[in-house]
Amino acid sequence: MYVGILTHTTDTELLKYKMERYASYGYTAIDYHGYSDPTKAVYDLPENEFEALMRRNGDVIRGAGLFLSQTHAPFRAMRYPLEERVLALTRMKAGIRATAYLGCADMVAHPLQPLGKEDGNAAAVWAINAEFYGRMADYAKEFGVNICLENMPFPGQSQASVPNTLRLIHDVGRDNIGFCLDTGHALVTGDDLGDAVRLGIKEKRFVLHVHDNDGKIDQHLFPGKGVGDWKKFAQALHDAGFDGSMSLETKVKPENFKDPSPDVIDAAERELFAQAKAIAENKVE
Questions:
Q1: If you average pLDDT over residues 200-213, what whole number do you get?
Q2: C-alpha distances in angstroms, 236 versus 160, 201, 210, 241?
Q3: Assigned domain for 34 exists
Q4: Quick one: pLDDT at residue 115?
Q5: Confidence of residue 116 (pLDDT cuts 50, 70, 90)
């Protein structure tokens, strides 16, 4: 099993530095979030420059000896009113192309979401998602890309829980639609992490976003810093024979430390990797 972590960096030189650093800690995979914000300037590039940048960055990741396990689609535009779905459509297609340019097979995407935490009209939301992602899956197939829909941390939304996200995937009905199990989101919706693995692993594509929280809000804490049952989660991955990337969607942030000295940050980076490695090796105490 790979042990992965995310990066948001699009700057090639900074990305090179970060990849070398992550590799030095022992990570073997990367989850690329470089275009997850639809307002980023990268979207203003001409297509040839956009493609060249993504190809360079894919080469940088592989050059550090890391496997590019998945990317993340733009998500802040993923609202369901028509005027915002136009932006979502444009950005999602760009994200699909970027995934292909990077040399990656799987792109994680959020379902289209209401503006609040409640559905309002659940049937309409469901129909919009099934139609939208059917079109996106067909477009992605032209580029050899799979779309993995992610469970969300909003108990009041019909598609948010793990079982309902899987039902939406089946309603889309494309062979290149898979599932991203987000552990932090599952904790907020009350889904058991072991059961979530056992359900999700049955899908054609199965990837992970791994982080912890207090069970109430999406905090992106290190595993073990919240309420997640990581022993049960690790055992479920082991029992399922999962051989993909145990991919962290959390990272060390210097601004969270009173003393963000290099030694303190380095110790925190090593602690985070050790936690992830223990999960991947089913050695959670």
A1: 97
A2: 21, 10, 14, 9
A3: yes
A4: 63
A5: low
Residue 185, in any domain of the structure? yes
Q: How many domains would you assign to the chain?
A: 1
* Long-range contacts, stretch 126-131, CB < 8 angstroms, 24+ apart: 126/158, 126/159, 126/168, 126/171, 128/80, 128/85, 129/80, 129/159, 129/168, 129/172, 130/168, 130/171, 130/172
Which structure tokens are listed for 243?
A: 């051989």
Q: Cite the beta strand spans of 153-243 per DSSP E.
A: 177-182, 206-209
Give the tens place of pLDDT for each residue, 10-31. 999 999 999 999 999 999 999 9
CATH of the domain at 19: 3.20.20.150
Confidence (pLDDT) at 80: 66
Q: Walk across the sheet containing 146-150 and list its strands.
A: 206-209, 177-182, 146-150, 106-109, 67-72, 29-32, 2-7, 245-248
Domain assignment present for 285: no
Copy the structure tokens of residue 66.
């890391």
Distance CA 109, CA 156 (A): 19
Please give the Cα distance from 61 to 81 (Å, whole number): 37
Q: By percentage, how much of the chain surpasses pLDDT 90?
A: 80
Q: Which amino acid is at 95?
A: G
Domain containing 62: what range?
Answer: 2-280
Is pLDDT larger for residue 39 or for residue 31? 31
Q: Which two tokens stand for residue 149?
A: 């829909």
Residue 81 DSSP label: S
Tell me how far apart the alpha carbons of residues 121 and 70 are, in angstroms, rounded to a whole number: 32
